[in-house]
């Protein structure tokens, strides 16, 4: 190999983020990704200074009323101008190892490769969670422009790629909940969205929900080794079971006549 040969120029990279009221977290993400040639933040009406924080890092901020996770992320991806797009959530960040790996991947990317997937590791209650079904939680986040679409339902979005996907090894760092109260608030919101998305079910569904909740606890805590993550792993297992039961209970509630829900 001729060491004097010119090195392949890295393609341009856009970092794309959707956000609302993430002033306490979005700065960590922006600081963790210094390799982006363009930073685009699509904000859906923040009132806490998120826009100011984003602009202080040189980000281009666009306001877009909330369209839902899939449509909002698709709009953001289509607005980016670079050949490659890194789509991140405001509660995530990159390690130095992840940044270096992304750089190497783009410097040596083959023409037939359209995207890269990365594991995602979540931090909860001051601990990196590596069991209970939370890891490796692999996501496609780095994609060649025009090579995929965001898809999914109201709660579970995914980037579908038209072409070859390669795997990166260093994880996205996910600061999933601010505290237990934040997790409980999310469980309450997501269970309501799930019920209205999937429709009503009858009274027997709440009994089935109890069985499903017990199964979910055993899945997270025992089968997927969540107890190895200590007290945080136990809390995750209990709250995961609660989320399953709450969906069933709210489905039962929704099947009642409106005057019987008081």
Strand percent estimate: 15-25%
Q: How far do the termini sit from each other?
A: 76 Å
What is the N-to-C order of secondary-structure elements (H for helix, E for strand)?
Answer: EHEHEHEEHEEEEEEEEHHH
Overall SS class: alpha/beta
- DSSP helical segment count: 7
Q: Could you say which overall geometry the principal axes of the C-alpha atoms support?
A: globular
Strand order of the largest sheet: 3-2-1-4-9-6-12
Give the helix level as a range of percent.
25-40%
Contiguous runs where pLDDT drops below 50 for at least 5 residues: 1-7
Q: Return Rg in Å.
A: 21 Å
Determine the mean pLDDT: 93
Total beta strand runs: 13
Oligomer: single chain
Largest sheet, in brief, is: 7 strands, mixed
């Amino acid at each position: 190999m001729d060491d004097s040969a010119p090195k392949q120029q890295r393609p341009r990279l856009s970092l794309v983020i959707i956000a609302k009221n993430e002033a306490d977290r979005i700065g960590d993400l922006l600081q963790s990704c210094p390799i982006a040639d363009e930073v685009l933040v699509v904000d859906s009406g923040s009132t806490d200074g998120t826009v100011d924080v984003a602009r202080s890092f040189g980000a281009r901020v666009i306001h877009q009323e909330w369209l839902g996770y899939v449509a909002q992320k698709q709009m953001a991806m289509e607005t980016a101008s670079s050949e490659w797009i890194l789509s991140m959530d405001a509660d995530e960040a990159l390690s130095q190892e992840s940044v270096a790996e992304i750089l190497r991947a783009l410097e040596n990317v083959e023409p037939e490769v359209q995207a890269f997937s990365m594991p995602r590791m979540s931090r909860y209650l001051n601990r990196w969670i590596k069991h209970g079904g939370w890891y490796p939680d692999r996501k496609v986040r780095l994609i060649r422009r025009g090579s995929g679409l965001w898809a999914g339902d109201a709660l579970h979005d995914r980037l579908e790629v038209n072409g070859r996907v390669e795997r990166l090894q260093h994880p996205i760092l996910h600061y999933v909940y601010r505290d237990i109260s934040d997790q409980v608030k999310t469980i309450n919101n997501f269970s309501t969205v799930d019920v209205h998305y999937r429709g009503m079910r009858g009274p027997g569904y709440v009994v089935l929900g109890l069985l499903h909740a017990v199964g979910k606890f055993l899945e997270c805590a025992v089968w997927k080794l969540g107890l190895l993550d200590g007290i945080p792993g136990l809390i995750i297992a209990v709250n995961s079971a609660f989320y399953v039961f709450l969906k069933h209970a709210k489905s039962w509630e929704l099947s009642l006549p409106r005057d019987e829900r008081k």
